[in-house]
Amino acid sequence: MDHDELAFELTGLLDRWAPTAAETIDLSGAASYDAAQLDVDYYFREHPGVDAATVILAGVSIGVVSRRSLARSQGTAADSNVGTGERLELTVDSTQYRLLVFVCPDCGTQDHRIFYDPRDLPRCAGHGEMALRR
Ligand SMILES: [Zn+2]
């Protein structure tokens, strides 16, 4: 598994609502999602005063992992894979769940997301990035 694939899978481990963290954890050596999850678990055990850490993968920050997001990810460790994070938001963080509507400014095509990631906006097939409807 290369770092791009791992970074994609690790989104299920990240805390979308955590503020940026001063501490960092380098998961470049993790060979899989499960290995990274164990690394994070070990890290928090070794650093009892730390509640969140910025995840570094191949020298790049990919987000923040927190004790909360780790616990959430461990809830379904057995079937952790692409999309797990989204399902978990629905079941565990239901109070923060909100359906976001995105609209293509050119043709009005709509798409829906349960979280807002400015780096990964829904795209209209004909016109590119859609805009969040507020
Ligand atoms: Zn369009």
Q: Could you give a short description of this structure?
A:
With about 130 residues, the protein is an alpha+beta fold. The chain is built from 4 helices and 8 strands; from the N terminus they run αβαββααβββββ. It has 2 domains: about 5-90, no CATH class; about 100-130, no CATH class.
CA gyration radius, whole angstroms:
16 Å
Got a strand count?
A: 8
- Give the biggest sheet: 3 strands, mixed
* N-to-C series of helices and strands: HEHEEHHEEEEE
Count of runs of 4 or more consecutive helical residues: 4
> Helix proportion of residues, in percent?
25-40%
Q: Unreliable stretches, pLDDT < 50, 5 or more residues?
A: 77-96
The proportion of residues in beta strands is 15-25%
Count structural domains. Answer: 2
Mean pLDDT value:
79
Which descriptor suits the 3D outline?
A: elongated
User: Widest sheet: strand order?
Assistant: 1-2-3
Secondary structure blueprint with pairings:
Elements: H1 3-10, E1 24-26, H2 33-46, E2 52-57, E3 60-66, H3 67-74, H4 84-91, E4 100-103, E5 110-113, E6 123-124, E7 128-129, E8 131-132
Parallel strand pairs: 1-2
Antiparallel strand pairs: 2-3, 4-5, 4-8, 6-7
Helix pairs in contact: 2-3
Bound molecules: zinc ion (ZN).
Zinc ion (ZN) binds at residues 104, 106-107, 109, 124, 126-127.
